[in-house]
Design goal:
This protein is α+β, with helices and mostly antiparallel strands. The protein contains 13 helices and 23 strands.
């Protein structure tokens, strides 16, 4: 209950309900006058006095008499100290005496034989009344604390909802805590993402500082010995000190004195058991912190920790979106590097399919019209993602730079290998199959650098179809620049089918973990051409991919899949 000076009586206080409703409370009440509204408790004391003839008075914490005003209200006036024969029943709230009920003013209007017993009965009644009044005040105080706490959290939540960054979240948390608790200075420190609390102050980051000197902030030594205060905060207990200058836990009291700090309270910023940081608050004068203060600061810190994590997740989400956009653009560039349409080469029917496991893959194929001839390249870069895609682009460019050596394919692959070995890191390599088809001369020249062998499907009279592996060449490119490669030449016939692929196709697995396998692929394509000898290149590609989908189902695709089919007409 807020009070004002009574103009009719110097030093007196009178009730002021309007001011009481408007005045915010951030500290515990110190007197019964902080709870009084219409003065009914003082009026009850007056009626007891009139009834018993024994003076019963309500006094404030500083000893002033609370007088009931007829018609409602009260005033506080100076009074003589309690006489020796009087009895005082204290009103205790939150461990603090906020007032007393005094019995003993005036002589009883009771016969001598009954006066002693009546007086004792009255004292017991007043003691019970004091207990009941104190209980009501305690309930009122708890309610006020809860109102202050909820109001602070609501205000902070409204501010945090507009905070888009971790720094802004911490600023809101700091300013809210200082305002609600009525403190003078503070800081918020964040820890690195590790399980151990930093031993020195310089190993933490001061994100927000209010009214603290640079010397204080930049000092490498912690406030307490062995960082006890921070450890208590992160355990959820929090640390409080009424006066840092007399606190034995403080590491360097002279440093505290130079900064002009006295009271201290902190709370940990934790999220799902992970230590994020600590909120540290200070007062310039000694300050006794209540359980309400500690609970309120912890609530603010907990809410701030959630907001910090939300801000971090939002930042990560934005970063992921940015990366996703970049990957999408890179994937689009990569797709444009693949043939936009199948080349038209007289005497050949060509089809291909490329399915990346990620948005960016390491497989590639290329179809190069070479003056009536057709160059066919299929490669598989080790790894996946951005690195594999970049390496794929480099290999494709290296290969295209050597296409003038139309039939010296061993030299083409050797040069690509030398460039790869010199320009890439250890562990970066590519398997590559490259062939050039002369449809007029019905001839294929090829070189395989550690790649899955391309299959040549050929009809052998009435004996059906046979598959031959084309594997002449050497090891993968990018490992040994001294590696020599061989080339081979194959005479082609009308109706022959070339099937080039990457291991992502044969290594595909189903839900039982079984591999699709090279032999399954071989049997499947032989069955397809045996059942339909005139099947087109595109038809065979569709048949293989359909069978692969039937085998894998919804199992995760862990590698790129590339298939190129060329049919000799």
């Amino acid at each position: 209950m807020a009070v004002t000076t009574d103009p009719a009586g110097p030093g007196a206080e009178v009730s002021d309900p309007a001011r009481a409703a408007a005045a915010p409370r951030t500290a515990d009440p110190v007197s019964i006058t902080d709870f009084l509204t219409d003065g009914s408790l003082a009026g009850l004391c007056r009626q007891l006095s009139a009834l018993t003839g024994v003076g019963v008075e309500l006094r404030s914490a500083d000893g002033r008499r609370i007088v009931w005003i007829e018609g409602g209200g009260w005033r506080a006036e100076e009074a003589e100290p309690v006489a020796g024969q009087a009895t005082a029943a204290p009103l205790v709230v939150g461990g603090r005496t906020i007032g007393t009920l005094v019995v003993g003013a005036g002589a009883p209007r009771i016969s001598d034989g009954q006066g002693g017993a009546a007086r004792a009965t009255l004292e017991r009644a007043v003691a019970l009344l004091a207990g009941a009044a104190a209980e009501l005040c305690q309930n009122e105080l708890s309610l006020r604390h809860r109102v202050v706490e909820v109001s602070a959290l609501l205000r902070m939540n409204a501010l945090l909802s507009r905070a888009a960054s971790v720094d802004r979240v911490l600023e809101v948390a700091m300013d809210s805590a200082l305002d609600v608790l009525g403190l003078d200075a503070g800081s918020v420190v964040l820890f690195e993402e590790s399980d151990e609390l930093a031993a020195l102050e310089r190993d933490v980051t001061h994100k927000v500082v209010r009214n603290l000197s640079r010397d204080w902030v930049e000092c490498p030594l912690p406030l307490s010995k062995d960082r006890l205060f921070d450890h208590l905060a992160l355990r959820g207990e929090g640390a409080v000190s009424e006066d840092l200058l007399t606190d034995a836990r403080v590491l360097i009291p002279d440093r505290v004195r130079a900064e002009g700090l006295r009271g201290f309270i902190n709370a940990g910023l934790t999220f799902q058991g992970r230590a994020l940081g600590v909120v540290r608050l200070y007062s310039r004068a000694p300050r006794r912190f209540s359980d309400t203060d500690r609970r309120l600061l912890k609530s603010l810190a907990d809410q701030a920790a959630v907001s910090i994590e939300q801000a971090r997740l939002l930042r990560l989400e934005e970063e992921e979106k940015r990366i996703a956009r970049q990957l999408e653009l890179a994937a689009d560039v990569q797709r444009r590097m693949l043939p936009a349409r199948m080349p038209t080469v007289p005497g050949l029917d060509v089809a291909a399919r490329y399915i990346p496991s990620n948005e960016l893959g390491g497989d590639f194929y290329d179809l190069l019209p070479l003056g009536g001839h057709l160059g066919v390249a299929v490669g598989d870069v080790v790894g996946k993602g951005v690195a594999a895609a970049l390496l794929m682009s480099a290999v494709r460019a290296m290969l295209r730079a050597q296409i003038d050596y139309v039939y010296d394919l061993d030299e083409v692959i050797r040069r690509v290998n030398v460039a790869m070995t010199r320009d890439t890191l250890q562990g970066e390599f590519v398997s590559l199959w490259y062939g050039v088809i002369d449809p007029a001369g019905r001839r294929l020249t090829y070189c395989s650098a550690g790649h899955e062998p391309t299959m040549l499907l050929r009809r052998e009279g009435r004996g059906g179809w046979r598959a031959t592996d084309l594997s002449v060449g050497g090891m993968v490119v990018g490992v040994d620049e001294r590696q020599a490669y061989a080339r081979a030449t194959v005479e082609l016939r009308s109706g022959d089918v070339l099937v080039a692929y990457t291991d992502g196709l044969t290594d595909a697995r189903n839900f039982q973990g079984a591999k699709f396998g090279r032999e399954t692929l071989r049997a499947m394509v032989l069955e397809a051409v045996g059942h339909e000898p005139g099947i087109s290149a595109g038809g065979l590609v569709e048949r293989v991919m359909w069978e692969l989908r039937q085998f894998s189902g919804l199992a995760e695709r862990v590698d790129d899949q590339t298939l190129v089919v060329v049919r000799v007409l």
